[in-house]
Amino acid sequence: GGIRVSGAVTPAFDVTTSPSNTAGHITTLDHPLLNNAPSAIVFVTRVWGGGGSTANIASLLSVFYNGTSWAIFREDGLGMPLDTRFNVLVVSR
């Protein structure tokens, strides 16, 4: 299973929260289609099972552009659990 795409830069990828990309309730996304791309359309879904954190994130998750990068954040402001996996799909405009 999974998403299958083609091209030089794959617009679908997964990210796992870690100390290097997560601070507090925010996880920064580092990807060629997202960096310095404020008009990108970003879809994010939590990966359940298959390893990683089993922490329940009961709050809403959103994305925002911080001026150079896109990021995922918990709207309740609680810390983002480490080892949490997300699927990300980028639509370039």
Q: What does this molecule look like?
A:
This protein is mainly β and 93 residues long. It contains no helices and 7 strands.
Main sheet: strand order = 2-3-6-5
Q: What's the pLDDT, averaged over the residues?
A: 85
Order of helices and strands: EEEEEEE
Largest sheet at a glance?
4 strands, antiparallel
Q: In percent, how helical is the residue content?
A: under 10%
What percent strand?
35-45%
Give me the secondary-structure category: mainly beta
Cα separation of the termini: 27 Å
Low-confidence stretches: none
Radius of gyration: 13 Å
Number of helical stretches of at least 4 residues: 0
Shape: globular
What is the secondary structure topology, with strand pairs?
Layout: E1 12-16, E2 22-23, E3 26-29, E4 41-46, E5 61-65, E6 70-74, E7 85-91
Antiparallel strand pairs: 1-7, 2-3, 3-6, 4-7, 5-6
